[in-house]
Specification:
heterodimer, A: about 180 residues, mainly alpha, Rna Polymerase Sigma Factor, Chain: A, 2 domains, about 75% helix, about 0% strand, elongated, B: about 130 residues, 3 domains
Chain lengths: ~180, ~130
């Protein structure tokens, strides 16, 4: 039994281009959202999201519905995001960590209630940005995309116990960094 | 609360899961990053470029064996030339032929007639003098 999106992909493989367009429109928002929180530059995140769809489009002849379509899509997205982060060099990651910590401090809670929501979002974003890439990916896929442990494990090419461990460490770090928000 | 170094007890676990739940809530409530209005057009343009690039690579892939084939053909022709160029006739019978008629005679292997022709040509030359 394959999921409805995998079925659309099979239809696309058989020549139905409108099936691809449906998948494109359905998955563009979550994909852009995921990549925008995985890589530091918004424009680059969009390019990577486009690249994911290009790869899916061009791999249609080889597509086999062995897993959910979202696993296939986020798996490509995750690999591209990691490559992008690798390319950006470790020293840049270091700089980003420092920048994220700086933004976290700068975006400290303010008395003005009107800005409270925005400030919180900025602080959560900054804290997320400071997480190691795999922890960040695991948390985003679990919390924002509401994917199961097994699916996340397939996307990250790891075991479910490793996913649970990644999630635990991510939550621990965020809880410490966002002490004021969660207390 | 358990002491440092001791495994967490039930209250600690509850406290931790409550903190984690709040973290999840904060992450879930983050505003979605929306794609820009140019996203779709950018995708189709990118796809067109990728397909065009793939077309060029396919042509090159087809041409690559052809290049080898041309090289191999040239090498085979050279080898054939060297093999056939090896004189089949004994060295002393080598004759430089100047015209098509003599060449035909040479091909037919009538060496006797050919040397008679040479003598005749030499004689004619003498006559001229």
């Amino acid at each position: 039994m394959i999921d409805a999106d995998a079925e659309l992909m099979v239809r696309f493989r058989e020549g139905d281009r409108s099936a691809f367009e449906q998948l494109f429109h359905r998955y563009t928002p979550p994909l852009v959202n995921f990549l925008a929180r995985m890589v530091p530059e918004r424009a680059r995140a969009e390019e990577l999201a486009q690249e994911v769809f290009v790869r899916i489009y061009r791999a249609r002849d080889r597509y086999e519905p062995t897993a959910r379509f979202s696993t296939f899509l986020f798996g490509i997205a995750h690999r591209l995001a990691l490559n992008e982060l690798d390319r950006a060099h470790r020293r840049r990651e270091q700089a980003l960590d420092e920048a994220a910590a700086g933004r976290l401090a700068a975006a400290g809670p303010q008395a003005d209630e009107a800005y409270a929501g925005k400030r919180t979002a900025e602080r959560v974003d900054a804290a997320l940005e400071g997480l190691p890439a795999r922890q960040r990916a695991a948390l985003l896929l679990r919390v924002q995309e509401e994917l199961g442990y097994e699916e996340i494990a397939s996307i990250l090419a790891t075991s479910t116990s490793s996913v649970k461990s990644l999630l635990h460490r991510a939550r621990e770090t965020l809880a410490a960094r966002l002490e004021e928000e969660i207390s | 609360m358990s002491k440092p170094g001791e495994p967490p007890g039930a209250p600690d676990e509850e406290l931790q899961s409550e903190r984690f739940r709040k973290v999840d809530e904060l992450v879930a409530r983050l505003p979605q990053v929306e794609p820009s209005p140019q996203f779709e057009a950018g995708f189709w343009a990118r796809l067109a470029r990728a397909e065009e690039g793939a077309g060029r690579r396919t042509i090159l892939r087809y041409l690559r064996p052809a290049r080898w084939l041309v090289g191999a053909g040239a090498a085979a022709a050279l080898a054939l030339l060297l093999t056939l160029g090896d004189p089949a006739l004994p060295e002393q019978d080598w004759t430089i032929v100047a015209d098509a008629e003599s060449f035909d005679l040479l091909r037919e292997g009538d060496l006797e007639l050919l040397s008679a022709l040479d003598v005749l040509e030499a004689w004619n030359g003498n006559q001229d003098i």
